[in-house]
Design a protein that fits this description.
The complex is a heterodimer of chains A (about 220) and B (about 425). Chain A has about 220 residues and is an all-alpha fold. Chain A has a domain of about 110 residues: Arc Repressor Mutant, subunit A (Orthogonal Bundle), CATH 1.10.10.10. Chain A contains eleven helices and no strands. In chain A, helix 2 crosses helix 3 and helix 3 runs antiparallel to helix 4. The longest helix of chain A is centred in the C-terminal third of the chain and has 25 residues. Chain A is elongated. Chain B has about 425 residues and is α+β, with helices and mostly antiparallel strands. Chain B folds into five domains: about 50 residues, no CATH class; about 60 residues; about 40 residues, no CATH class; about 170 residues, no CATH class; about 60 residues. In chain B, strands 2-3-5-1-4 form a five-stranded mixed beta sheet. Chain B is flat, with a radius of gyration of 40 Å. Chain B starts with a helix and ends with a helix. The chains are: A mainly alpha (about 220), B alpha+beta (about 425). Chains A and B meet through helix 3, helix 4, helix 7, helix 8 and helix 10 of A and helix 2, helix 4 and helix 5 of B.
Chain lengths: ~220, ~425
């Protein structure tokens, strides 16, 4: 009983620490402090992975890998950008590596994640050829939307995910993806246009999808 | 602004990231243009829908798995620091390597100046130097590594010297080696575990009755609790010599008995004994296995307590991953067990060389052949000589320039002195 009491106070002393203090402790190898630090980001990283990679299993791997990389390289964080930007950047790079690996193994894995810009010039913003018809037929709006996002070409997908899912500002996205704010604007604009057009196209065949386009508007 | 331009800026505008003048233009436009206003509403609805996808929860056991990996990492880091402290071992090895290289280079360079002979010697010299470095480096590295895992470096020292004399000692019960190194067995920590050592050897054996010896070695495999791995027999044309290769495995506890028996079959021309210590690896794997087993048990308990189907599925997935790990680790351990339990003996077997060359009369053809070969050899050596000479000249060229400059200076000085002298006489 006494021991749990002690543990709890120990946990509280970590919980009360600021991010900077946690980072400092993490640099010294303190696993508990790092866990506390990671807790604020692990879910967000996982969700970026989920939308970028298209499945939970890869996303979990990616999030684990990212957090481990962060733990390993914590001493290299010098504070020349915000910690969250640094964390997201590592996550995004890990995603990129995994997408690249998936691209290389694409013959093995039919559910193509789309091409990475390094390997093919971008003529198209999106490739929706792989969305299974069931997605419409089952009327799973959420799933349909998720497929819409994961059908985007990675560089557009990244911007869309960081904005729509992670809710980051244009400036943050620019810092993370290492592009200008102007590029963020144009990519996001094109990504959204591509997704909307796709919904409109699908809506001709599957009338219930019109709902997706109008519902929110009526709500407001 | 045209409707299309207006619509093109909806994306930023909705996010509140459009430039103020653009935002103003949009607001002004949509009050007048119904179609664009509707479009803006739809656009906003659509983005709201996308953000409605939201964030999903972390998968089951995500944090537990993360903690495990972090702790492994932290442990590896601590271990890494311990190894770093032994950096001086590497430094000494590096210094020795540099010394060998410098000495090697100097001797090669020195011979180069002497002309052709050095050209032949250089590659051999270089090779020798390199292998020396590699050996040293290996010694330093491996002792550093094992020391970090189990504090038994001293006990391992005798293994590092693969001398022929070691043969007899090595063949003895390994526990004796701890004493050989002068380590008091009591000072070895409690965690000093049974060593896992793979012991293999190979020997060349000259025998009179080839087939009988071959069969005897085959029989040996069975006698000493092992089996025949492979066997080959070769016969050569024009020769009565027979040779073959046979490889057997025997119980490593009885390796020396088996060797004694095999050596008794003939004259052993050469024998090599090599060991590889997998103790550190072995117990490392065992530790990981233990960890996974506890995890498996914990997961099984969790599974029994789980009520929601989703939890059960998640636990089951994790369980199957863990048991796959366990299987693979167990497999590795079994493999090591087998390698350490059974020693490999490779035997090269041959009969004495009774090769008789058939002499054929060659006539004049042989004579002309000899002349031709002699002449070609002469040309080759002349070319070699010229090449050597050229290398020599190129090598000493820098020195020649220096000498020439010195000679020139001296000549000028002498000439100057003479002139002055003559001038003095005239006056």
């Amino acid at each position: 009983m006494k021991k749990t009491q002690h543990d709890r106070t120990g946990a509280e002393s970590i919980a009360g620490l600021s991010e900077t203090e946690l980072i400092q402790r993490g640099k010294d190898g303190d696993v508990a402090a790092f866990e506390q630090l990671a807790e604020a980001y692990s879910r967000r990283i996982y969700n970026i992975g989920l939308r970028m990679l298209g499945n939970g299993e890869d996303a979990a791997d990616m999030a684990q890998e990212t957090l481990l990389k962060i733990y390993r390289n914590l001493s290299r964080f010098r504070g020349d950008c915000s910690f969250s930007t640094w964390v997201y950047r590592i996550g995004v790079n890990t995603c990129r590596d995994m997408l690249r690996a998936a691209y290389r193994n694409r013959e093995l894995n039919f559910s193509d994640f789309g091409e990475d810009d390094q390997y093919r010039q971008d003529f198209e913003i999106a490739d929706y050829s792989h969305i299974p018809e069931q997605a419409y037929l089952e009327q799973e709006d959420q799933r349909y939307l998720a497929e819409l996002v994961s059908g985007l070409n990675p560089k557009y997908r990244l911007v869309a995910v960081l904005r729509e899912i992670s809710g980051l500002s244009y400036q943050e996205i620019a810092d993370i993806a290492n592009i200008s704010v102007g590029t963020v604007k144009s990519r996001l604009n094109r990504a959204r246009a591509a997704m909307r057009n796709q919904v409109l196209r699908d809506a001709e065949q599957y009338p219930h999808l019109h709902r997706l386009m109008l519902q929110g508007g009526q709500g407001k | 602004m045209k409707c299309s331009d207006i619509r093109n800026n909806f994306s930023d505008y909705i996010d509140g990231e459009a430039l103020p003048e653009v935002a103003a233009a949009i607001e002004q436009h949509v009050t007048g243009c119904d179609e664009c206003r509707r479009e803006l509403e739809n656009y906003r609805a659509f983005t709201a829908l996308l953000s409605g996808l939201g964030e999903e929860e972390l998968p089951f056991a995500f944090n537990a798995k993360l903690r495990q990996r972090l702790e492994e990492e932290a442990r590896a880091r601590r271990r890494g620091k311990a190894v770093k402290k032994r950096g001086w071992v590497k430094a000494v090895a590096l210094a020795a390597a540099c010394l060998v290289l410098v000495v090697g280079a100097a001797s090669v360079g020195g011979r180069l100046l002497l002309g052709k002979g050095a050209n032949d010697a250089a590659p051999a010299e270089g090779y020798y130097g390199e292998s020396g470095v590699a050996l040293y480096d290996y010694g330093g590295g491996s002792s550093g590594m094992t020391a970090a895992r189990a504090p038994q470096t001293a006990a391992e020292a005798p293994q590092a010297a693969p001398e022929a004399e070691m043969f007899a000692e090595e063949a003895q019960e390994y526990s004796a080696a701890d004493n050989v190194a002068g380590v008091d067995p009591k000072s070895v920590p409690q965690e000093a575990l049974e060593r896992k050592i793979i012991r293999n050897c190979s020997l060349s054996l000259k025998v009179n009755d080839f087939d009988a010896a071959f069969a005897a070695i085959e029989a040996c495999a069975a006698t000493y609790g092992g089996y025949v791995v492979s066997g080959e027999k070769y016969d050569y044309e024009g020769s009565t010599q027979r040779s073959g290769f046979i490889s057997i495995r025997v119980d490593s506890e009885r390796l020396d008995e088996a060797l004694a028996e095999i050596e008794g079959l003939g004259a052993a021309e050469s024998s090599n004994f090599y060991t590889s210590d997998v103790t550190a690896d072995y117990y490392d794997i065992q530790g990981r296995l233990k960890q996974y087993r506890t995890q498996e048990q914990r997961l099984t308990e969790l599974y029994d307590q789980a009520e929601a189907i989703t939890d059960m599925i998640a636990i089951e997935a994790e369980l199957s991953r863990v048991s796959a790990e366990i299987d693979s680790l167990e497999g590795t351990l079994r493999y090591y067990d087998q390698l350490t339990a059974l020693s490999l003996i490779n035997v090269n077997l041959y009969t004495p060389d009774t090769y008789t060359q058939v002499v054929e009369p060659q006539g004049w053809a042989g004579f002309w052949q000899d002349i031709r070969e002699g002449f070609l050899n002469g040309i080759n050596s002349a070319l070699d000589f010229l090449a050597g000479l050229f290398v020599l000249i190129v090598s000493i060229f820098p020195s020649l320039v220096l000498v020439a400059v010195a000679v020139l200076v001296v000549a000028l000085v002498i000439r100057g002195l003479r002139k002055r002298k003559r001038g003095g006489e005239k006056q």
